[in-house]
Model the fold of this input.
Amino acid sequence: MAAQVIDGKALAKQYREEIARRAATLRAAGRPVRLDALLIGSDDDAAHQYAQSQARTCAELGIDYVLHALPAGSGYDDIAGRVLLLNTKDEVSAIMVHLPLPESVDAYSVQRLIAPEKDVEGVNPANIGNVVYGRSSLAPCTALAVIKMIEHTGLTAGSLRGKVALVVGASNHVGKPIAVLLMRMDATVLSCNKWTPDLSEHCRGADVLIAAAGVPDLITRKMVKPGAIVIDVGVNRIAGADGKMKTVGDVVFDSVGGFSAGGAKSSGSAGWISPVPGGVGPMTVAMLLLNVVEAAERASR
Done:
């Protein structure tokens, strides 16, 4: 049997509908639902396009969006001052800072200033700590996306008990919080990286395998336990056979999922698998906006 594909676009659409409903309820009660984003002057068209796309999506869902475009010469004091000001504004439900920042500005130093209750990307160390201690918090968006995708397969906190979940990659805002959230769901969690000895053997024992190492095609079919849930967080740009650049994940999707290059099904290993692109990416965007609504609801209580 070929794996069932976790369609991140379709799942994100379901969450966007929920977000729109919750935002409408808040607006009807006269409560603000607003995301303020900082973008420091950049020649990077992709950053501006992402901000514009974010504004359109917020408008579609009934979320107010305010972009603070600071000039390229802005230093730490300029950026920190704007964040601290937004922290004090009751009409601001949520705050995020677009990266990268100027080379002279340390991102961590700015992110730690965002009020935890408005930190919709979950980058403030206080929110990371709340995730670890199981307290109410806004979890990092990609980590939350992974958990929602696992739950979509039917595995919940109760049914994850006794299951082995392995995370390949331990970055501060992806791998580590994913591992902690899985621990909170009573899974038996293993954390590995691309240098882990006998990585294949560790992977083959996992009921849930999350690839977040940033290494193209790191996870092959022989590394996956039959029937396992495989979530691919990797986003890598490589040259295809035709010489053109393409986006791939950390997992060899066709063979691990039991699909031939032409799309035909064959005997595969995984039970569920997420594609790249079209998997974790759309869900991460949806989780950011879910956190915005969550922050607005908490502020209104």
Observations:
- The longest strand covers residues 34-40.
- The chain has a mean pLDDT of 93.
